[in-house]
Design goal:
The chain is built from eleven helices and 14 strands. The protein is of the alpha/beta class. The protein has one domain: TIM Barrel (Alpha-Beta Barrel). Strand 9, helix 10 and strand 10 form a beta-alpha-beta unit. Helix 5 packs parallel to helix 8 and helix 8 runs parallel beside helix 9.
Length: 367
């Protein structure tokens, strides 16, 4: 489906000694990139942000983080299906991506060692039965991996069966494909016809894109966005805040602004999850929040709709404010309904990367 490169040695623009060093990383964390995405990188710039997104970094070998930093296994109700929030069901429909983001929080899906285990949906009938029995579910996220790595026929089967359930109001497709290989959209008329068939006035298909940096919004990506709009999809963008990639006020400002200009609503900016190998990409929470707020201050209302959130095991914690002494978090979504809307006030810690660096969560948050 796409032209990919799976071996770091095949990238002609990298020095030989650099390739040898990076092989150490790829023995632990796989490398994968599309020829299209590699063409966007300025290899003469050692600090090129797009290069940092896909080219391995030796610091990934530093001991840090967990295979499942948000405890997704706790909310797994059947293979490949997570039910963390009452109204939302998450389906890991694919364990493949068009490229391997070095900071991936679900890299356990791709690892070659003991962390790796199958997590992809296996039982479509079981999934449909589960949704039918849980009428509180109003929407389904089809993710992975990357939802759009599925063949169109397989994706349509999944969407068709979910959409026919009365209490499902919309489906979200989580994808990085518009950044890594927009031709998946522009060259597949069957896919666009499928979107048009199932995205209706009162039951929409949302395509949740993943653009990290303004330079990823290329002519081909914009063409894909326009085709999706014409097919009836609604587009949102979410991305993590990543060191050396988008951790600057100007980069975030232009990312939000360019997204708004092409009709993609800025949705979430996530704190980098402490997954194994992610140490070189993490920005301290307080520093990230300050950058995020300064970037939003430069934007008009249309471009500043994103929220800065932490996807924690107990729920999505939105970072609300800083004072001289305190940081304020609010449950934007809570795994346990009793926590919905609760405010957490913690003493500031400029070195904090995750909520546990502020507070030890009691069992009551989980039960």
């Amino acid at each position: 489906m796409f032209k990919g490169i799976e071996f770091i040695s095949d990238i002609n623009l990298l020095p030989i000694n650099n390739k040898e060093n990076l092989r150490q990383v790829t023995q632990h964390f796989p490398f994968l990139a599309t020829t299209y995405y590699l063409s966007l990188i300025d290899f003469s710039d050692p600090f090129d942000p797009l290069k940092r997104i896909v080219i391995p970094d030796l610091d990934e070998l530093k001991s840090w983080g967990k295979a499942d930093p948000s405890n997704e296994n706790v909310y797994t109700v059947m293979e490949g299906v997570q039910h963390k929030y009452d109204s939302t069901l998450l389906v890991i429909a694919s364990e493949r991506c068009a490229g391997m983001c070095r900071y991936c929080f679900r890299k356990r899906l791709f690892l070659k060692d003991n962390y790796a285990k199958p997590e992809k949906l296996q039982d479509l009938k079981g999934l449909i039965k589960y949704i039918e029995e849980h009428k509180e579910i109003t929407n389904v996220i089809i993710s992975g991996g990357d939802a759009l790595m599925l063949p169109t026929s397989q994706l349509e089967t999944l969407i068709k069966n979910i959409m026919k359930i009365d209490h499902i109001r919309f489906i979200r497709l989580g994808t990085r494909i518009l950044s890594y290989w927009p031709y998946r959209i522009t060259e597949d008329t069957e896919f666009l016809e499928m979107i048009n068939k199932y995205s209706k006035a009162t039951k929409r298909i949302y395509v949740v894109t993943h653009f990290d940096h303004p330079r990823e919004i290329t002519h081909e990506a914009v063409k894909a966005v326009n085709l999706l709009h014409k097919a009836g999809a609604v587009l949102l963008n979410q991305c993590p805040l990543i060191k050396g990639i988008n951790d600057s006020v100007d980069t975030l400002f232009w990312l939000f602004t360019k997204l708004a200009s092409i009709g993609v609503a800025p949705y979430y900016v996530f704190q980098c999850r402490p997954a194994i190998g992610n140490k070189p990409f993490a920005v301290p929470i307080e520093k990230g929040y300050k950058l995020f707020e300064k970037a939003k201050a430069k934007c008009c209302g249309v471009a500043k709709r994103a929220r800065f959130v932490i996807s924690h095991a107990i729920g999505k914690l939105e970072v609300l404010a800083l004072t001289e002494k305190n940081i304020f978090f609010k449950f934007h979504r809570a795994a346990k309904r009793k926590n919905e809307g609760k405010l957490l006030i913690c003493e500031r810690n400029p070195e904090a990367f995750w909520p546990e660096d502020y507070i030890s969560f009691e069992e009551s948050f989980y039960s």
